[in-house]
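Quick bug: ArsR family transcriptional regulator output formatted oddly.
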Amino acid sequence: MKNYDKVKSAKLCYEHIGGKLGQLLLEVLIAKGWLAKTDSSDRHLYITELGESQLTAFGVDLSQIKA
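Here's what came back:
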């Protein structure tokens, strides 16, 4: 039997990952240079060339991302 006290929460929020998992995933993708902003005040991110190659290698189908 699993110990659910040690399970970290993640949730889907509409069409994205929310909660702490979503926050941590976003921070890691930015730190690795896979995602970036055009301007620091911009709230929109883009996938870098490095991010595109790494996410594709990881098996992420980027064609499913809505523009």
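Actually, after a second look the formatting is fine. The radius of gyration is 14 Å. Closing.
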